[in-house]
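If you are new to this repository, start here. Below is one unmodified record pulled from the training split, so you can see the exact layout before writing a loader.
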Amino acid sequence: MGDSHTWTAVPGAAERARSVLAAAWSCAVTAEGGREEFVVAHTVGEDGRVLLHVPEDSALLTAAICTPRGEPSAVLEFADVAPVPVRHRIRARLWLAGWFVPETEHLVFHPSRVVLRQPSGAVVVDLDEFAAAAPDPLAAAEARLLTHLADAHADAVQRLTRLVGPDSLHGAVRVQPLGVDRHGLTLRIERARTHGDVRLPFHAPADDVAQLTERMHVLLAQASAASCPRALQWQRTDGDG
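And here is the target side for that same chain:
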């Protein structure tokens, strides 16, 4: 692949935030000094607005009716949890501050501030970029893809470590697939007391599962042909959970 081995594209903050939002199955809402947890109760509009279905007796519904529109009065929190069991499974957290507008069958949340926290740190996401961004095309299938890779193809995960720098593997006791997006695969390297994440970039973006399969085959072929662990450049970010 030549110079394509050095391509290390990663999702931008807005895309990553929208991916967390798209894949989350629960959210926590803090409003009027109270906190409520909602499971399988929200959907997401194309512009990133959250539509939340709440029980009729929810205090959140009363607070939404009594709060003036445009006045930030609630915070929604979403956790991005690794589908494969690893140490420190929270890969990212997403906070949306804003206000609710009651509609016929749900509350519509209008964000006024978006904050994404990853192991690399927290970043405030531009609202226009957040509204315009689309979630990663693999976000909805990621959990299924990663659990299948870990459960049925542990040998392939082991082979992929041949593409990892030896310094990253020093003291490793376990390697698991941590995440996958259109740009690449991330492995979690667990040691006795610490861990680190290594990213294996694809040679080109994968926009669907069929393309992802081809990208994975390329990585595995590179791993099989690797004569030394540094056959592919790698990118590491130490995790803090």
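Two things worth knowing about this chain: The CA atoms of residues 3 and 203 lie 9 Å apart. The first helix runs from residue 13 to 23.
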